[in-house]
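Researcher: Let's try something more involved. This one mixes different molecule types, so please make sure each is placed in the same coordinate frame as the others.
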Amino acid sequence: MSTRTFGERVQRNNDERLLTGGGRYVDDIPLPGALHVAFVRSPYARAKILSMDTSLAKSRPGVVEVYTCNDIGALDTEMPLLIPHPSLHSPKTQRPLARDDVFYVGQTVAMVVAVDRYVAEDATRLVDIEYSEPQECNIEIEEAISDDAPRVHDDVPNNVAAHCIQVSGDPEEAFAKAEHFTKVKVRVDRSTAAPMECRAVAARFDSVSGELTIWDGTQAPISVRGGIASIFNLDEDKVRVIAPDVGGGFGQKVLLFYPDELLVPFAAMSLSRPVKYIEDRTENFLGSTQERTQIHEVELAANKDGVVLGLKDNFLHDTGAFIPYGIAVAQVASTAIMGPYRIPNSRVEYKAVYTPIVPVTPYRGCGRPHACFAIERAMDQLAEELGLDRFEVRRRNLIGDDEFPYERPNLLFADGLAVIYDSGQYSKALDMIIESINLEDFKAKQKLALDEGRYLGLGLSFYVEATGIGPYEGGHVKVHPITGKVYVNTGLTTQGQGHETVFAQIVADQLGVSPEDVILVEGDTGAFDWGVATYASRAAVVSGNAIHMAAEKARNIVLEAASNMLEASVDDLELQDGKVNVKGSDVSVGLAAVATACNPLRYAFNEAAQAATQFAPAARSDEPALGDGRAPGIETTEYYAPPHAAWAYGVHAAIVEVDPGLCSIDINRYICVHDCGNMINPTIVEGQVMGGVAQGMGGAFYERCEFDSEGNPRNANFMDFLVPYATEVPKVELHHIETPSPLNPLGVKGVGEAGTIPVAPVIASAIEDALKPLGVEKLHHVPLSPNSIYEALSVAREKNII
Amino acid sequence: MKPPIFEYFRPKSIEEAVSVRADHDYSAILAGGQSLIPTMNFRIANPTAIIDISRIDSLAEYRIDDSQIVIGAMVRQRDIELSDSVYKVHPLIRETLEHVAHVPIRCRGTVAGSLAHADAAAELPALLLVSNGCVVAHSASGARIIDANELFQFHMTTSLADNEIITEVRIPVMHDDAGWAFLEFTRRHGDYAVAGVAVILRFSEDGICEESSIASCGIGSRAVRLPEAEAVLLGKKLDSNIINEASQAGKEYVSAADDTHATTEFRQHVLSTILSRAINIAKSRARYGSE
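Model: All components are placed in one shared frame. Result:
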């Protein structure tokens, strides 16, 4: 009898539409007469603007307007610092259009608005910007913090934007007591999210209603609306922001504001014409935010048995030319560094460093891949130095099942809340991966292969991920009186994760309808007024629970109304197949009829409505149509604010074969054990994990934004900046553990970023293991290209081993 | 990433096409568009006239006669790759084409177009070189043949004149006895080669190498033959020492500077590895390669 769909492999209900070209992205929004934008961008990292002349560009036929900082009124100011932090002592944010100075190649200097994008691009070449000689710059963060390094911002000495120290327990005592010390220095290079759809903004201003409508490929429509209303001094109700279908975000689209997000609405209002900006791939490399470069120096203080007593991490975080999103990425890294290990004493110190290149904001993983790479490489090295097995060293340090909730005293996560791991079965995960690898069998195969001159290696890495952070999200549920279909809204938005399916499952379970009859509308401030954004693996946790609570409340309204209508006790009712049944009888009433009955009507427009008019026999004439405190219809809204993050975790392993002749890698097996709490839909969870692993492969092998010493991008295109194709991503063997989170009613944790986090250390660990017989240098720098593996084998070549 | 304004022509005959070409100082030929369109969108190439040759029916055919395969300028790479009759007389062509980008790209890309584009890391120029092939170039004043070793000048530069159009690619059929191999090293499947080699070898009945043809792509400013490596093999039985010597000789041809994907030293290392592997494969496929 159960109609429960929670936990079932319900097919994603949006795939057919998206896979057959039915998606509607910003560029698909029909805006007759829309003008198109192209930007003039800085060709230099650091230079002074000496003069700007737009007259020639303006005279080009088809050009409607050309804007510089002098033409944008109140917008000509620094854009907001989104997340201030006490450690962020020298915050700098960008102006929509550069004034006096440029700070990175690609920074927006002037905006051309023309009848089409072709003309707009032609005209960008006619805008005459005179620059000073480019100023000296340094993009290497280790050098940029020295006293004599050229400054990105004249008033920020040593280019340090933020300096933060977090201490938990007593690290000094731990280091004094320890028997063994392991030190590693690791580096993760700069990367970019490279979403399939680049960013896009379109705006239309209705001068009759005074309403500004913005279609924005953003992860945060409600926040964008709030910001736009504030900056343009409009009532929030006069601004509607819609994120239609969005072709991938991965964090890049959570930043607000990009210059175009303000300038396009500004142009639409000043020109009284719809205006569109569709970013192209080159611009995405030049102007949309990036992430990743961090250099960690980690030291572990351990006993000879491998138990780690204390950790010190000192790291540098590259924030690019500006720091609009605050220190979120570095803060996440600083609290993820202890991973799943007990390590009760720690001292983490970091500096966020300005460099004259594209600014940094979170990218899928957000500091965790960096921290995971650092701690996991350190654990491998600790095992090697102590002559212990890599798996065993980890086991001795894992937080035990009975130690949850496990708090790291005095540490604050990126949301400003305590670091408390809520639940997990870490040792079970380790057992499962060892069993899946078949460790003994692998060791035999490895030895056999070596005898044939083939190099097999095994690598592993744990990870933890604080998911589902606050502040809050809401859920709105409404049963449609005519069709009985259920409409659901929430304030965040989707970039393809499958919200439409999992949120439908949550509601379907409460109201006894099929998930296909639950229709989700999100990403539209016209549909729901309150919320934050899609980021930090939080939609299922925060919106999911809010929607669950709203659906539960709707269920209670349905039961109460049906109880009156069927003259049966609530306890005798069940919701199933779109109906309310009296258990064990054939007496029932449809959900649509209940919804209709819950709305006292004056006018009857169909049979169902006739039953709901105030003159119908069912109505009581001695009371008002709506009882005390009752609203018409079946419509509920609830909000969920998590107490703190829910910590997901997992362990990945890979078996690889390395060909020293080409320094190339074959991944024979890739195994993943993960736990994201209760799974709403295992198929969607697996899709998230596999997509994450694919992106992690990018981080392990390919993704590296290169800049020359003058800050010029060297590979700002898909020929030279490599992302893995499907052919580069191995088959992933997935094993689930479900340890419910005690923090929320559904017991769920997030899974959006999980797969990405541990891939690089798994691969580095596996390659090192494979090449150990040859004598390979430590692989402490990702991405790992064949060229870097070649270099790690230089000693072996000198000794003529290969 | 939008091209500037250009004129568009779609001639129905070679005569019409060469006449349009003669009338424009900076025209470009549009066949499959797999290289031209991106370079225009990046504004690397800014032709004032585009001559779309897709409606010239005679260019869409290929044929095989006794001595050569003749491929019209509009013949798609995928059609040649899948052609059993081509495979029968020159199996290296299929093996090479399998390394050219991805299937959707090969379905549109043409053999002649890739040769005319002459990317230094592209596979097909190496194929033409190793096979001693040539192209036929038409202009308003007639047709001429350009041998492979004259065609490729530099990265994306050929000896084709501004008023000429490649109308045909001619590749001599491979000898029945020959062994062949194409190998390349790329960062990802379907990428341009960090280094690629094409090898054709023939042996006398007693296992002496009597024909040795080796070409490489991705290692310098254009695809090249590796005569020093060829010479090491000629007149010898190929044992591992000889093959190693040839693969070392191949290293000398690496002239590419350090780039995003490889240093010169690593590229040399890769070239010597794939060269020795390709020679071994070709040897094993040749009629008398293993005696």
